[in-house]
Amino acid sequence: MSEPFRQPIDACTRYCAVFGHPIKHSASPAMQNAGLAALGLNWRYLAYEVEPENLREAIAGAKRMGFVGLNLTVPHKLLAVEMVDVLDESAKTWGAVNTIRFEPAGNGIIRAHGFNTDAEAITRALREDLGLELRGAKVLLLGAGGAGRVAALKLAAEGVSELHLINRTEAKAVAVADEIRTRSPGVKVSVGYPRAEVDLVLNATSLGLKVEDALPFDPTKFSLEKTHAVYDMVYRPAETSLLKVAKLAGCRTANGLGMLLYQGAKALEIWSGQPGPVEIMRQALMENVYGH
Ligand code: ATR
Fold first, then answer.
1. 2, 78, 4: which is closest to 35 by C-alpha?
2. Do domains 14-116+258-290 and 119-255 have the same CATH topology?
3. Atom nearest to 233 CA in ligand 1
4. Domain chopping of the chain, boundaries
5. Which atom of ligand 1 is nearest to 74's Cα?
6. What are the pocket residues of ligand 1 if the criterion is a CB atom closer than 6 Å to any ligand atom?
7. Which CATH architecture has domain 119-255?
8. Measured between alpha carbons, how far is 273 from 46 in angstroms, rounded to an integer?
9. Mind listing the pLDDT tens digit of every residue in the chain (292 residues)?
């Protein structure tokens, strides 16, 4: 994609950035710079390889250098909860920070305000990209790592009726199920495959990133004929083996590009005070990730 900015960088340009480890695969700079240019801001969005032991110093450095804000990706989202000055409700609720806004706190002091835009992005993607009504829905969720846990808690908070959890390390699924029983007692949560039909299968494992990966569920224990829709948080490749077999089984499908897009659009809104230009950001993301 060509450079989206008409104005060159000058001494007044301000910066946002994403910190991660690894970071070189990140599509966020392409997506966010397209958004910043469309909003007419003299800002740029950068990406930095930051190791976890340097995260605190890196956040402090960005604050001192007048950055507008930061995104944090793997493995920083949990660590950053202890490194910001104030937590938004979203970050408290989900126990993770993926967005920081540096903001004036009086007397020339700048504070780091931590937000979480991932959880909302999950439900927005399920609604907009799959047309799913979450209240009352029955869901089979694959994966109970960082992303799986937030997805499970968020779906429970949205009022799904049943949540079936599967994870390679079963103890993690059991821990998430226990957390849901405390936080959302109205949801029927269990660890294991459902016997009856579900409305959605959601993959929150990393299986599918590599072409040789196995399916993220055991086909001898569950058939995709028993679901109406499948969402795969993986977006590279655009069509994972899971989405291929789901299409063959007649399911509605969507990949994780929407989640990446919606968390980014919300972050941009938090920094700029203006709605993120979603379609322009989507186009930039697709060009960056799929080359078209
Ligand atoms: P993220 O923050 O992206 O969720 P994570 O916390 O490392 O990353 O979680 C990765 C998820 O993919 C976990 O559910 C993990 O299962 P474990 O909890 O048993 O580790 C799952 N996963 C990764 N590789 C897997 C594999 N080869 N087979 C099955 N599940 C796998």
1. 4
2. yes
3. 3
4. 14-116+258-290, 119-255
5. 2
6. 74, 143-148, 167-169, 172, 205-207
7. 3-Layer(aba) Sandwich (3.40)
8. 20
9. 568 998 999 999 999 999 999 999 999 999 999 999 999 999 999 999 999 999 999 999 999 999 999 999 999 999 999 999 999 999 999 999 999 999 999 999 999 999 999 999 999 999 999 999 999 999 999 999 989 999 999 999 999 999 999 999 999 999 999 999 999 999 999 999 999 999 999 999 999 999 999 999 999 999 999 999 999 999 999 999 999 999 999 999 999 999 999 999 999 999 999 999 999 999 999 999 999 8
Structure tokens at 277: 């230009």
Q: CA 245, CA 239: separation in Å to the nearest integer?
A: 10
Amino acid at 101: R
Instruction: Output helix, strand, coil percentages for the chain, rounded to the nearest 5.
Output: 40, 20, 40
State the catalytic residues.
77
Tokens of 80: 């950053």
Arch. (CATH architecture) of 14-116+258-290: 3-Layer(aba) Sandwich (3.40)
Tell the residue nearest (CA) to atom 7 of ligand 1.
Answer: 145
Question: What is the value of pTM for the model shown?
Answer: 0.94
